[in-house]
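Worked example

This section walks through a single chain of length 264. The input is the sequence exactly as stored; nothing has been trimmed or padded.
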Amino acid sequence: MSELSYLDWNNSIQTLNKAYDSGLFVIIIGPKGTGKTSLVRDFARIKSKKLESINFSLRTRESHLVGTKTLTDGTVSFDEGLLIKSMKEGSILYLDEINSSEPDVLLRLDEALDDRRQIVLKESAGELIKAKEDWFVVATINPLTHTGTKELPPQLLSRFPVRISLEYPPEDVELTIVKKYVSGNHESELVQGIKLANILREAAAVEELFYSPSLRETIAFGKLLDKDTSAKEAATIVFGNVYTQWGNIEHQKVKDIITSMFGN
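Given that input, the structure is written out below as tokens.
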């Protein structure tokens, strides 16, 4: 097995293992860019299980989950959606950003996730689909402060009795993660970049800023350092310029923070 990409700093894989062995579905709660997808991918590799993934949005429809009828050369057939394929195969089903979806889609999903683990396919002559015993579902939700997210209905939330809170890791752990993706020796610059990211995250948490940098951005900061970009320029490119979309005042506020940390 190749090296896993997720650094399990809060024992999330252990929690997933216990849930899997107990036949309990899991929901991971946390902001974007905290490694939720990497965690689920690595867990699937550890279990040697196929992973089916659905990324939810306002454009997600029932057909993406259950499938749709098709007409080919005069013959009507049914193309199964990822939910049905996963139930039949007993694979791991990853429902990413589930609270970005529409209520009708969630209602259909709720049918498959109850204790019976089955769904009636009204799209295919009322066929009853029952999930394999080892079928396992992991969902993620972003905090309600994120644009496009909605509160998950209580009955659907109850389908996921095991809950993992995944926040940004401590600064020393984030440094270890970022160093896995960079080749040069930029220890002091990386420490400053991660410190900057956390200052911006804390400001966003109390609504002083509109945006919270993710782990992807601290990794990008490190990769730019590898390409002989100065720390201040890398910080401006990765952390600073994104705030221009909220106007000059927001942008200048972050520019001043970057200057105070990295100099003129």
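What to look for: The chain has a mean pLDDT of 90.
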